[in-house]
């Protein structure tokens, strides 16, 4: 199937899953915690993922489905086609009635994304990435051309657990001492979509990432003209530790900030 068609199906699935989640947004909803006190899951997460999986299995019954909740695969196959979805990225925001959460779907082949969509229903936005670039609500968007780091807004993302809180502090210091401002969105996919659309200039983390949190958004950034690397400055892959994304202007500065979070990479040679 052409990549453009896969992008259309990713859009359909993300929109449908987002609609399921939106139906329960700001309603009474039981929330459970998973790995930590701020790591929430709700029935809306599970229902939205089931809706996404149903759409994809109807179109691609033989392609693996990777998702955050426990009725899906937890790892991306090394070869062949597969789909990756996050029903609600930013569940902490979702359960608090905040609008910055997303439903993301990505199509990958041999572990590499080829199409993706991120719906942000509470804000009325739908980002789609395919061979022709990135659109938001049907209109082309791209990373901005800001090159002055004093004007950059950079997002520290993923979550540093209580036993790694000193890294969170270093992330904040690394950003506010180098760039114009820091923005904490609390949704990786929303952060990466904002970067792809030119609203911010950088997104960074040094911690381990999950494919459902990152693959769709990283693909949007690259298709929109940005750069995504790991902490070594190499092209980012879903199984790498850390993620550094920028509008491709002064990427080295964003990478340096990300390395400053982690003592094991702080002394690495400049790219």
Notes on the protein architecture:
The N and C termini lie far apart (38 Å). The longest helix has 22 residues, at 3-24. The protein is globular. The protein has a 7-stranded mixed sheet with strand order 3-4-5-6-7-8-9. It has a 5-stranded mixed sheet with strand order 11-10-12-14-13, with helices on both faces. Mean pLDDT is 92; it is low at 267-271. Helix 1 (3-24) runs antiparallel to helix 2, helix 4 packs antiparallel against helix 7 and helix 5 (188-196) runs parallel beside helix 6 (211-223). A hairpin with a 6-residue loop joins strand 1 (31-33) and strand 2 (40-42). The chain folds into 2 domains: 3-141, Fructose-1,6-Bisphosphatase, Chain A, domain 1; 149-266, 3-Layer(aba) Sandwich (D-Maltodextrin-Binding Protein, domain 2). The chain has 8 helices and 14 strands. The chain has 271 residues and is of the alpha+beta class.
Tell me which CATH architecture of the largest domain applies here.
2-Layer Sandwich
Global outline: globular
Rounded to an integer, what's the Rg over CA atoms?
Answer: 17 Å
SS element count, helices? 8
Please, how many domains? 2
Neighbour order of strands in the largest sheet: 3-4-5-6-7-8-9
What is the CATH fold-level name of the largest domain?
Answer: Fructose-1,6-Bisphosphatase, Chain A, domain 1
How are the SSEs ordered, and which strands pair?
Blueprint: H1 3-24, E1 31-33, E2 40-42, H2 43-59, E3 65-67, E4 81-89, H3 91-95, E5 102-109, E6 112-120, E7 125-130, E8 133-136, E9 139-141, E10 153-156, H4 165-176, E11 181-182, H5 188-196, E12 202-208, H6 211-223, E13 227-229, E14 241-246, H7 251-261, H8 263-266
Parallel strand pairs: 3-4, 10-11, 10-12
Antiparallel strand pairs: 1-2, 4-5, 5-6, 6-7, 7-8, 8-9, 12-14, 13-14
Helix pairs in contact: 1-2, 4-7, 5-6
């Amino acid at each position: 199937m052409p990549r453009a068609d896969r992008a259309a199906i990713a859009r359909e699935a993300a929109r449908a899953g987002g609609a399921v989640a939106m139906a329960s947004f700001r309603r009474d909803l039981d929330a459970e915690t998973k790995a930590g006190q701020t790591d929430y899951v709700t029935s809306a997460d599970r229902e939205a993922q089931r809706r996404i999986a149903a759409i994809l299995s109807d179109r691609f019954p033989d392609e693996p489905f990777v998702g955050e909740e426990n009725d899906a695969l937890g790892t991306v196959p090394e070869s062949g086609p597969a789909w990756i979805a996050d029903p609600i990225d930013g569940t902490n925001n979702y359960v608090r009635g905040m609008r910055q959460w997303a439903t993301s779907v990505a199509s990958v082949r041999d572990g590499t994304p080829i199409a993706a969509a991120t719906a942000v229903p509470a804000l009325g936005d739908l980002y789609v990435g395919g061979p022709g670039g990135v659109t938001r609500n049907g209109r082309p968007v791209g990373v901005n051309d800001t090159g002055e780091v004093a004007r950059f807004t950079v997002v520290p993302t993923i979550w540093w657990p209580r036993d790694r809180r000193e890294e969170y502090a270093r992330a904040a210091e690394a950003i506010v001492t180098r760039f114009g401002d820091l923005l904490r969105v609390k949704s990786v996919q929303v952060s990466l979509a904002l970067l792809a659309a030119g609203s911010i200039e950088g997104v960074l983390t040094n911690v381990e990432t999950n494919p459902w949190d990152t693959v769709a958004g990283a693909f949007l950034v690259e298709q929109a003209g940005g750069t995504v690397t790991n902490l070594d400055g190499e092209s980012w892959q879903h199984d790498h530790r850390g993620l550094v994304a920028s509008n491709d202007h002064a990427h080295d500065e964003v990478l340096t900030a990300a390395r400053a979070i982690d003592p094991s990479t702080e002394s690495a040679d400049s790219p």
